[in-house]
Amino acid sequence: MGKPKRERTLKDNEAQAVARMMRVSPQKLNLVAELIRGKKVSTALADLEFSRKRIAVQVKKTLESAVANAENNHDLDVDSLIVAEAHVGKALVMKRFRPRARGRVGRIMKPFSNLTVVVREVEETA
Asked: PROSITE patterns, per this entry (predicted)?
């Protein structure tokens, strides 16, 4: 039997990729996601390639995965794709403690983030 198939939440001209549990704070990841929002995929990939942020490598991987999903699963044209959305969410936070002076403790937060990249096919206007 099994469950009935879930309806597709995206439009027919969209594809997405999700990267979960990325070891970076959402605030830092959002700075990199801001670089690619609304740009053509080729431009966004070039920006991520030359970004000096450590997490840009994983963001690039996620964007390439979204492009591959668009091409292979949804038959979209790769050359006319733009980054429609790139949103960041919070995941868990590991809490660690470091001894400090006079018997106190310093709390260290190690946050994780989720990244969702949605690419959309647009018609070229000449």
From this structure: RIBOSOMAL_L22
**21: alpha, beta or left, given left = phi > 0 and alpha = psi -120 to 50?**
left
Integer Cα distance of 93 and 90 in angstroms: 9
Mean pLDDT of 16-39: 97
pTM of the complete model beyond 0.85: yes
Of the listed ranges 2-6, 41-45, 54-58, 83-87, the one predicted with least confidence: 2-6
Rg (CA), the chain: 18
* Ordered alpha helix ranges (H), 1-126: 26-36, 41-49, 56-72
Q: Please give the Cα distance from 14 to 66 (Å, whole number).
A: 9
The CATH number for 14-121, chosen from 3.40.50.1240, 3.90.470.10, 2.130.10.10, 3.40.309.10, is 3.90.470.10
